[in-house]
Write a structure and sequence with these properties.
heterodimer, A: alpha/beta, Rossmann fold, five-stranded mixed sheet, 16 helices, 9 strands, globular, B: alpha+beta, Alpha-Beta Plaits, two-stranded antiparallel sheet, 4 strands, binds flavin mononucleotide, binds iron/sulfur cluster
Chain lengths: ~425, ~70
Amino acid sequence: MTTLAEPFADGETDVARLLPRPPAARLVDHLARLGTPPSSGRELIGEVERAGLRGRGGAGFPTAIKMEAVRSRGARLLQGRKPIVVANGTEGEPLSAKDKTLLVHAPHLVLDGMVAAARAVGADEGVVCVERTATPVVHALERAIAERRNLADGITLRVAPTPARYVVGEETALVNWLNGGDAKPTFTPPRPFERGVDRRPTLVDNVETLAHAALIARFGAKWWRSAGTETDPGTMLVTLSGVARPGVYEVPLGSPLRHVLRNAGVHDVGGVLVGGYFGAWLTPRQAAMVTLSTDDLKVMGAGLGCGAIAVLSGDTCPLAELARVTQWLASQSAGQCGACAHGLPAIAGAVQHIADGSDRDASAEAAARRWLDMVAGRGACKLPDGAVRFVSSGFTVFAEHIAEHRARGPCAAFDAPAVLPVPRPEESWR
Amino acid sequence: MSATRKKLRLDPIMCVGHGLCAELFPERITLDDWGYPIIDPTPISPALEEHARRATDACPTLALLLERERTR
Ligand SMILES: Cc1cc2nc3c(=O)[nH]c(=O)nc-3n(C[C@H](O)[C@H](O)[C@H](O)COP(=O)(O)O)c2cc1C
Ligand code: SF4
């Protein structure tokens, strides 16, 4: 599949596959960097499978399997229900900035990926979804799509500016909204690959996933696997916060977390959150040992998720942070499922008691632990499960702080300014 | 060999917590602290299917489903 020369070499910790320096927002710059995209078809699915690409939206699902499910579904369906591609760039995760950065720095790479994916699954239309509050991103995409009018690749592309809330990026919520409903998750099945936008088989992929697919279409699986490890091939965009130089970095998978953090400047680690507010906390010790690999992180109850990594320094109060973010996660519930609508606020209240030192008899902690068990797996979407992972791992990693707060009341850092961001979401679901 | 057994599944969006199902089928359905059902995922034996059916039929919002599950 590889016919073009490789335009860039992979450094060890400094990779620029997805994020060109300088940025390539304009089509001419994009084409000058990477050449014209090949007109690939269905065979891309096999190449993506050989590459071993996994989704970068959070769940890490093998991309080729989803593509093939959409393709075969579309091939079987009559009545002209052609598949459609939805590129998920909503990125409601407050700790993540990689999708928006990618879309501004290399919009054409994502659009190339949408076109290649559309051809592979038999679609002729692609929609890229971004939060409507992120106006520079919406404009970058509109401009990029307008520039491509003469490419004549046979695929119609458009931008859909979505409401800005955490669960909007959940794939069934996105599909429901694109169909004119609320941007709230729906009961599955049917999953989008079975019946999605306009009842068509719908491929929902994260925008970074599609950008990788575009590179695989150009340079092939073998080249793509030249970064990363055997079991975790390729690179990944990570968003680092709580470091000296926060921002979006592209790193080969399998890199030791400590190298990635050292690169961005880190000192005094109290705990590390991997995978955003859906993710798990690691102790400083674990963070020093782990590599950015699925299996490695799994042993510690964590995962790569969307690649958002936050370092909490030793002089912040982790319990105050835990309480605030849990409260925020509860506020992000779509309020549709009993266990989520009632359970998350109950858990958040208990975490607040633990943090403010009022849980002297440990009854709030006991209740929180019971509720964490009670709500797991009981939502239509995975919001409750994400919140459970965030709080449970926090309880484990910050156990000493909990004991301290119980014995002596909150620490001096309790009233310090908040570190982890909790943005004010839009009210509207439409 | 593929046999089909039945399994209970809840649509948590449709469910508003009437709680009738837990009354009718306590062997497999309990209520959480807020009155919403917790479903035991183990397959329903033929002996219990009658009870399960009564529970699904009683749900005013049709949120409880008795589904076929494939086993090897
Ligand atoms: C509450 C919730 C929020 C999500 N938000 C996003 C998001 O902002 N962006 C995203 O790509 N995936 C998000 N996802 C995951 C999507 O449902 C879906 O798995 C993903 O877009 C598939 O793309 P991928 O296979 O390329 O990862 C979210 C999932 C949940 C449960
Ligand atoms: S689990 Fe929560 S966020 Fe997800 S659909 Fe149900 S109520 Fe909405």
